[in-house]
Amino acid sequence: MSYINQLDEATINKIAAGEVVERPAQVVKELVENSIDAGAGAITVEIKEGGISFIRVTDNGKGIEEDDIDNAFMRHSTSKIKNIDDLYCVTSLGFRGEALSSIAAVSRVEMITKTAESIMGCHYITEGGIKQQSEHVGAPSGTTIIVRNLFYNTPVRRKFLKTPMTEGGYIKEAVERAAISHPDISFRFIMNGQIKLTTNGSGKLKDVIYSVYGRDITMNILELEYSCQNYKISGFIGKTNVLRGNRNLEAFFVNGRLVKNKLLSAAVEEGFKPFIMPGRYPFCCIGITIDPAYIDVNIHPSKLEIKFMFGQQIFDGLSECVRNALTKRPPIIEITDDDKPEKQETVEYHVNIEPFEKKRFSELVMEQTALYEKAEKPQQEKPVQKDLFEDLKTEGTEKKSFNIVGQLFKTYWIVEYEEKMYIIDQHAAHEKVIYEKLVR
Ligand code: ADP
Ligand code: MG
User: Fold this and answer.
1) Does 174 contact ligand 1 (Cβ within 6 A)?
2) Which helix (H) or strand (E) holds 123?
C-alpha cells in the first residue's frame, strides 16, 4: 500500500490560501492590489462583520475578458508576468497568480466584470473554488468582487480570527495604506453601511494624509524630497511633536508597494535620533522610487518584505534626508491657490487671545520676525542675532508696529507687521525661541 498521495487541486488551493489569506484584511489587500494593477482611478471597499461575512471591492479598471475569467481563478495564472526574467522588472503589485484562486478556495466569490470593449458584462460565481455560474449581465466597465463567508470550509482558520471589530480595524488599515501609497486613486471605505474613509484621488499625498490621519497630524508634517542616481525619496515626516510608543505611524512604499522593511525604519529613526527619546517613534509616510531591477519583492507570498541591492546607500540617503528636514529653518510660506483648504471639514476660527497672552506672543513674534528678516536680507552686513534682538527690543516703535490679529486652529497667529501679514506656527515659534536661547 502506498503512503504518498498526490494532493488534489482543491486541497492545494486551500493550503496556499493559508499563506496568502490568513485574515479578511489580506483578502482586501489582494483585491485592492488587483484593482490598482487594473489601472483603476476609483476603488470602493465595503465590508460587513469585519469582512468575515461580506467583502466587496469595486473598481473602474480595465475588467477581465469573459474568456479569461476561468483562468483568473486558477492557481499560478497571471496576466502580469510570463517567465522568471519578467520578475526582475515587474511593476505591478501582483504577479504570483495566487490571490483569486486562494480566496475562492475558502469562500463564496461573486465577480461582475466588463472590459471597455465588450458590450455585456459577466456575472461569475464560485463556491469553495468550484465554478457555479457564469452569465451575461449589464454592468459598467470595471470589476466588482464580492467575497462571502470567508473560511466557511476551513473552520480551524476561522476560529483563529479575532472579533469582527478587530478584523474590521485591520481592514481599515489595509485600505488606508493602499490609499496613502496611491494618492492618484480615489478610495472609499464603507464598514457596516457607514463611510469610514474617502480620498479625493487628487494625486497629492498631503490630501490623503489629511483624510487618513486628520488635521492635527497634517499640520505637523514636513516634506521630504531627495533624489540620486539610483533612487528617489519623497513623502512626509512628522515633526518631533507627533510621536508614538510603537511604529504604527511609520509607512513605507517602494514603487507604490507598501513594504515592511527594517532598513527603512532604522534609517528614519536614525535621522530622528538626536531629537527624540528612545522608545518613541515618529510619523512618516515615505515613498522610494527605484529601478525594479534593484529590489527583490518575491521573498514572501504576501510580498510585504523586500530586499534592496543598495541597502547602505538608501539607509544613508534616507537618514540624512530626515535629519535635514528636521533641522531646516521653517520657510516663509507663500499662499497659492493650491494651498487653500478644500476639505469637507468645518473650519473653526478662534480669535481668543487674552491680553496677558498678547504680551508674551508679541515677544515671540518679534524674535521670529527678526530671524525671518535676517534670512530675507543676506546681503546686509551680518548683525549678530543677539544684537538684532536688542535693537528691535529697545526701539519701542518697532514693538508697537506688531499687531496680532488673531489665532487660527489654536495653532497659528496671524500677525500684521509693517506692510506684511505673517502666519506663525506658535509651537514652532516656541521651539525656535527655546532653541535660540540654548544656542545663545
Ligand atoms: P496576480 O495579481 O498575481 O496576477 P491574482 O490571482 O490576484 O494574480 O489575479 C489573477 C489575474 O486576474 C490577474 O493577473 C488579472 O489579470 C486578473 N484580475 C484580477 N482582479 C482583477 C481586477 N480587479 N481587474 C482586472 N483584472 C483582474
Ligand atoms: Mg493579485
Assistant:
1) no
2) strand 121-127
Q: Which residue has cell 468575515? A: 52
pLDDT at 120: 95
Residues near 420 by beta carbon (within 8 Å), at least 6 away in sequence:
none
Site to probe by mutation for ligand 1, drawn from 100, 107, 118, 303 as the one with most ligand atoms within 8 Å of Cβ, is 100
For ligand 1, what atom is nearest to the CA of residue 103?
6
Residue with cell 523586500: 306
C-alpha cell at 192: 457596516
277 and 284 Cβ atoms separated by less than 8 Å: no
Q: Are 144 and 57 in contact (CB under 8 A)?
A: yes
180 lines ligand 1 (CB under 6 A): no
Angle in degrees, 0-180, between the axes of helices 355-376 and 426-439, rounded to the nearest 10: 70
Burial of 81 (0-12, 13-18, 19+ CB in 10 A): middle
| 44 in contact with ligand 1, CB cutoff 6 A | no
Cβ–Cβ under 8 Å, residues 249 and 282: yes
Q: Where are the beta strands (DSSP E) in 228-325?
A: 231-238, 243-244, 250-254, 257-259, 281-282, 284-290, 295-296, 307-308
Residue whose Cα lies nearest atom 8 of ligand 1: it is 97
Q: Is the CB of 95 under 6 A from ligand 1?
A: yes
Expressed in angstroms and rounded, the spacing between residue 356 Cα and the centre of ligand 2 is: 61
* Cα-Cα-Cα-Cα dihedral sign, residues 358, 359, 364, 370: positive
Task: Report the chain's terminal Cα–Cα distance, integer Å.
Answer: 88
Q: How many CB atoms lie within 10 A of CB 10?
A: 13
Report yes or no on whether pTM surpasses 0.85.
no
Pick from 130, 156, 126: nearest CA to 22: 156
pLDDT, averaged in runs of 10, over the chain (440 residues): 82 76 94 96 97 98 96 84 76 83 95 96 95 95 97 91 97 96 96 96 96 95 92 95 93 90 94 91 95 80 78 93 83 45 38 40 48 44 40 43 83 86 86 84
Residue type, 276: I
The residue whose C-alpha atom lies closest to atom 2 belonging to ligand 1 is 94
